[in-house]
C-alpha cells in the first residue's frame, strides 16, 4: 500500500486481525492504530514510510508478532501515549532512522525476542514506560557510538521499574 496518509489505519477499532500486509512508502505510518484495542498484527511488512513502520497510540491489549519494520524515517515500532498491556514478540526492526522499538508513555508491555539492528539510535528504547518486561531481544550494529542497545529513560524514576533480562547486548 502506498498512500497519502497511513497504509492501514484502525481508529476506534477492536478485535481485528491484520495478517500478511505490505505497507510501504506511505506519507505517514505503515500501520496506525489509534484508540484501538485487542487487535492482532502478524507477519506484516512496513518499510520506507515517512514516519513509523507501526504506530500504536492510546491503543491497549494489542499483539504484534513477526512483523518486519525497516527503512522507516522514524521508528520501526512506536507504542505511545496510554498504549498499555501490549505484547511485541518476534518482530524485526532494522535500518530505521530512530529506534527499532520505542515505548513512550506506554506501560505494562511485554517486549520479547525481537531483532533490532542497524537503527540510528537504540534497538529498544523505553521512555516513561513502567511495569514493562523486556527479555530475549537481540539488538546490535548500532550506528551512533554514544547510544546504547537498550535505553531506559523516565522508567527508572517511576515506582514500577521495567524488568530487563539478558538482552540487548552488543554482539
Q: How is the topology of this model organized?
A:
Elements: E1 8-11, E2 17-19, E3 22-24, E4 31-34, E5 40-42, E6 45-47, E7 54-57, E8 63-65, E9 68-70, E10 77-80, E11 87-89, E12 92-94, E13 101-104, E14 110-112, E15 115-117, E16 124-127, E17 133-135, E18 138-140, E19 150-153, E20 163-165
Parallel strand pairs: 1-4, 2-5, 3-6, 4-7, 5-8, 6-9, 7-10, 8-11, 9-12, 10-13, 11-14, 12-15, 13-16, 14-17, 15-18, 16-19, 17-20
Query: Which residue ranges are poorly predicted, with pLDDT under 50 across at least 5 consecutive positions?
Result: 143-149, 153-171
What gap, in angstroms, lies between the N and C termini? 35 Å
Strand content: 35-45%
Strand order of the largest sheet: 1-4-7-10-13-16-19
Q: What Rg, in angstroms, do the CA atoms define?
A: 14 Å
How many runs of DSSP E, i.e. beta strands? 20
The major sheet is characterized as:
7 strands, parallel
Q: Give the ordered list of helices and strands.
A: EEEEEEEEEEEEEEEEEEEE
The overall pLDDT, averaged over residues, is 86
- Please bin the fraction of helical residues: under 10%
The best one-word shape is globular
The total of helices stands at 0
Structural class: mainly beta
Amino acid at each position: 500500500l502506498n498512500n497519502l496518509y497511513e497504509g492501514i489505519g484502525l481508529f476506534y477499532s477492536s478485535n481485528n486481525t491484520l495478517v500478511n500486509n505490505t505497507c510501504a512508502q506511505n506519507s505517514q505510518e505503515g500501520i496506525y492504530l489509534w484508540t484501538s484495542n485487542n487487535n492482532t498484527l502478524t507477519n506484516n511488512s512496513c518499510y520506507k514510510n515517512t514516519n513509523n513502520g507501526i504506530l500504536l497510540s492510546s491503543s491497549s491489549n494489542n499483539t504484534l508478532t513477526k512483523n518486519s519494520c525497516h527503512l522507516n524515517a522514524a521508528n520501526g515500532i512506536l507504542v505511545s501515549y496510554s498504549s498499555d498491556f501490549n505484547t511485541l514478540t518476534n518482530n524485526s526492526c532494522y535500518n530505521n532512522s530512530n529506534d527499532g522499538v520505542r515505548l513512550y508513555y506506554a506501560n505494562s508491555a511485554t517486549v520479547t525476542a525481537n531483532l533490532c539492528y542497524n537503527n540510528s539510535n537504540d534497538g529498544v528504547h523505553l521512555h516513561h514506560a513502567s511495569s514493562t518486561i523486556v527479555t530475549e531481544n537481540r539488538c546490535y550494529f548500532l550506528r551512533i557510538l554514544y547510544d546504547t542497545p537498550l535505553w531506559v529513560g523516565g522508567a527508572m524514576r517511576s515506582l514500577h521499574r521495567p524488568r530487563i533480562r539478558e538482552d540487548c547486548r552488543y554482539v
